[in-house]
Design goal:
By secondary structure, the protein is mostly helical. The chain has a single domain, classed as Up-down Bundle (Growth Hormone, Chain: A). Helix content is 79%, strand content 0%. It is built from 18 helices and no strands. It has helices at residues 5-30, 36-43, 47-75, 77-94, 101-118, 121-131, 134-166, 168-179, 182-185, 197-202, 209-217, 220-249, 255-278, 284-304, 309-322, 327-338, 343-372, 376-392. 58% of the residues are buried.
Length: 408
Amino acid sequence: MPDSRASQTQTWALVAAAAAILAITFGTRSSLGLFVSPLNTATGLGIATISFAMAVNHLMWGAWQPVFGAMADRYGPDRVILLGGVLLAGMFALVPLATSAPGLVLALGFGVAAGAAAGSMSTLLGAIGKYIPPERRGVAAGIVNAGGSIGQLAIAPVAAALIGAAGWANAMLALAAISLATLPLAWPLRRRHHAPAAAAAAAPAQPSMRTALREAAGDRSYWYLNIGFFVCGFHIAFLITHMPGVIEFCGLPPALAGTSLAVIGLFNIVGSVGAGFVIQRLRMKITLSWLYASRGIGVALFLVAPKTELVVLAFSVWMGLTYLATVPPTAGLVGKLFGTRYLATLFGITLLSHQVGGFLGAWLGGLAFVASGHYDWMWYADIALAALATAIHLPIREPVMKRLAPAA
């Protein structure tokens, strides 16, 4: 990419567009936990059933990531985002009509997850990874990742207010309308940066996707990274799905749930951008170990602290700082290990691992509450898994140079 002012302007316009898209897809999806209690009241399906639909959403959001990542690698991220925006809006609009358990699982668990996945991290970080110079890639990933938090910060309180003022069904339709804003934002991500065919023909041969997948499957460090991201998904899905229930169980004001999600989003902006800068100077695997250790300490302190509004907000700040700050170093390690040619696909697989953890975090949270009447066992699991993630990143091999050639 030429080092010119016009080129730099195009580059950062791409980063800004990717951050805005993630703000919409992540912000709307992160607000779903606010709908658990209203959905239960309106449909009578039960917390466990609704938690299962939410858990399927987490799992399928991850399952769609490598699919849409591969589509973006092949056809371009802009087309994938256009498809996802239309699908996301349509599925949000269908949720109020899904009053049975199968209908809710199909619309919310499968449909909303697919639409959100198309405009999420594998597609977006894969796109900027190909076009951003290596020395700026960590900061760019942090900015894009922070976009998700900006969306959560902006959309969660609006969704909570709409649920109270207009009802959960109208609030869901508002999320559908917001989702359509991703369509014009896809324009800066179109494939205008690709090299001409003649230049591509003269470039060194690129490894095939099958070769990249085979190499990743045989790499122990890649497996460790996936296990760590599984833990991240478990933590986050439990938090965004059941924190409103935790607040209600503690007898605190229901409005605190929307505020808590907004605070998490606000401080994740700091954590995500900060992580982007940190990994420019500190090894990514060490950064990840520190993030998971900090998260486990935060959960342990919250578990033993008195449950007041101030404590909930302080916990939200702490968790926000580590919430998705794991994404830039995780994506960065995938790029370091295998290059950027199939980054969207390989990071999509890592996101699938994240969402398998998310499925369990969301579903088991509901089951634990139904079985025991409290969430303590989930907090214990959070602490144990944080300790595992802290340790498992340390033996990861972090190369200085990428082994697979980057995209032309």
